# Entry
Amino acid sequence: MRLFDTYSKSLVDLPAKPGPVRMYFCGPTVYARAHVGNARPFVIGMWLRAWLRETGYQALLVHNITDVNDKIYDAAPGASAELAARATQWYLDDTAGFGLGMPDHMPKVTEMVPEIVSFIEELVEKGYAYPVGGDVYFRVAKFSEYGRLSGQRPDQVEEQEPNALKEDPRDFALWKGTKLGEDTSWPSPWGDGRPGWHIECSAMAEELLGESFEIHGGGLDLVFPHHENELAQSRALGHGFAGIWAHNGMLRFTGEKMSKSLGNVLTIHEALETWGQETLLLFFLSGHWRKPIDFSTETLEQAAARAETFRNALRLEDSGDETGWEAFASALDDDFDTPRALAVLHEWASARKLGLLRRGLTVFSLNSLGDSAEAPAEIAALAEARLAARAAKDFGEADRLRDEIAAAGWELRDEAGGYSLVPKR
# Structure
């Protein structure tokens, strides 16, 4: 298998099977309910892990949570820890709604501060970082390869974090001394404070995956400065760090009904409530992971139609033809080309190659498209009540009714325009 690497600007082969293939995908900064665009790196990481395991790799996925940050302080002055804990649970609950399982490790910054402090101490000891005024900064000028990942020219890098005490305007913070109004801090050799944004990922990735690992993922918006700074910190210490930098394209909100400027961008929770797991997964499947993908009513309706196509096919009699898996595997092994794999799935549906279709859908946790069941009247009534609660935007009551249905042994799966009820196995 091979993936496109942002650093080398080329396709790079993964190690021979069984690997291992160790992956670190940057996660959210938790201060609000995550919008649906934040789901793309999570979904891609989980799918990639599933495919690697399906094909015989030992795959491990780490997906971090940034639970101390300026944005969190700004969103909840004096109560940042409480907001971070609540928003972390929102993210866990919302991403669980995709039915993909969870990453192998989901470290929080607040749980790994000692490891981060040790990392900074080593950078200071080797002259790549310096303390000033309670903060610690990385010396950009000392790292000769700075800018290679993002294509930034070192002499054109603008100041990232203004501070008149810095040696060089380009230097970025590794440790931030506690400021007025910040309600969380940890001890360090430079005084009480907390980690800067970039150092946390270098430290957590290496703590869980080692000084060198195979894949670092995240959104294209993180290439600079976040990933450029991660690379500098780790390579400055002589660590190999990531072998492949896999940056996913951004989700674009399009159409009059959905735009950031109008303030009506959907959260993951709302998107799942509105469109359902299967439609959203098929939407993500339709776009190549490296390319932007348009999120609109029209594109979601197209995904919902695909879901119905597969449901209808899976109700037919199987042709018994099991040939053709190689075309599906070839698509995914070649830069994880999910649109090409999706086209193969449609070919199998048309040819009633239902064994292959079920196997392929399972890779993306879409095997539920073949489920059908007749729920008891009382369960159906609860589902209808939940549908009404959703329409009234009473999501608390909708969640309560979903839990009641689950407690009765049924799983409620949202679909465009309705829902399905599937008995738990």
User: Anything to note?
Assistant: Residues 2-248 form a domain with the Rossmann fold fold (CATH 3.40.50.620). The two ends are 34 Å apart (CA to CA). Residues 234 and 241 are 6 Å apart (CA to CA).
